[in-house]
Amino acid sequence: MSCQPVELVVLVSGTGTLLQAILDNQPTSGDGGYRVTLVVADKECPALDRARRAGVEAAVVEMEADRGAWNARLAETVAAAHPDLVVSAGFMRILGPEFLERFQGRTINTHPSLLPAFPGADAVGDALAYGVKVTGCTVHYVDAGVDTGEIIAQRAIAVEDGDTKESLHERIKQAEREQIVALLGRAQLHQETGNGKVTF
Ligand code: GAR
User: Fold this and answer.
1) Which of 13, 17, 170, 179 should be mutated for ligand 1, with most atoms under 8 A from CB?
2) Which of 143, 154, 146 shows the shortest CA–CA distance to 178?
3) CB distance 107 to ligand 1 below 6 Å
4) Which residue of 82, 94, 100, 185 has the fewest C-beta atoms within 10 A of its own C-beta?
5) How many whole angstroms separate alpha carbon 154 and alpha carbon 122?
6) Is 186 helix (H, G, I), strand (E, B) or coil?
7) pTM for the full predicted model
8) Which residue's CA is minimally distant from atom 3 of ligand 1?
């Protein structure tokens, strides 16, 4: 087992409060922990400014009509940073085969529902519309499906009377921030297998 920090590439699309929590909680000294080496977005967005303000390299791989070509360009951009782990944190694109053939098993995603309930782009709205009394958040490995990969961690959040999509999502995001930071904080890099596997 290595005591080097786990090097992360973080994928983002929007506001970037999850990214901010990940950046703010990077261990500053000592062995282990994690370090964000690159942030990649599919468009210019506030999350990229958070990366730049933190002195972390930020890149945009603009979506294009040819999804395969976009996935290949995204994979190239990410691969150039040689990450141990890719973290999708508010990244609103489906990762396709050209990306996953290089990074499946090393890419995790945080999602605002208790999967397998409410996969997809509007998990909070879907949970509210269904009328569930408990929802939450999930960190899972990314596979070829939509939010179907192996579950790593989950937290439950109660839906309160009068909740709007915004109020519920904000409580879920608070839990997501705590969950992803706790998980990354205990990530360990194993190099004896030769492939730099990360475990939690
Ligand atoms: C988070 O709730 C995250 O789980 C969600 O976007 C939000 C990002 O917030 N991602 C998805 O819904 C992916 N399907 P942020 O931009 O403030 O970090």
Assistant:
1) 17
2) 154
3) no
4) 82
5) 18
6) coil
7) 0.96
8) 90
Query: 192: which 2 tokens?
Result: 């004896």
* 111 catalytic per annotation: yes
Q: 3-class SS at 20?
A: helix
Tens of pLDDT, residue by residue over 68-98, are 999 999 999 999 999 999 999 999 999 999 9
**Burial status of residue 153 (CB atoms within 10 A of its CB: 0-12, 13-18, 19 or more):** middle
Q: Which two tokens stand for residue 65?
A: 């009509």
- Between CA 84 and CA 87 the distance in angstroms is 10
Please write the tens of the pLDDT for every residue from 101-143: 999 999 999 999 999 999 999 999 999 999 999 999 999 999 9
- Placement of tokens 């691969």 in the chain: 79
CA gap 8, 2 in Å, rounded: 16
Instruction: Tell me if the bond preceding 116 is cis, omega within 30° of 0.
Output: yes
User: Is residue 14 within 6 Å of ligand 1 at its C-beta?
Assistant: yes
Nearest CA to ligand 1 atom 7: 90
Which amino acid makes up residue 112? P
| Spatial contact of 107 and 83, defined as CB atoms under 8 Å apart | no
- For 3, the token pair is 């005591």
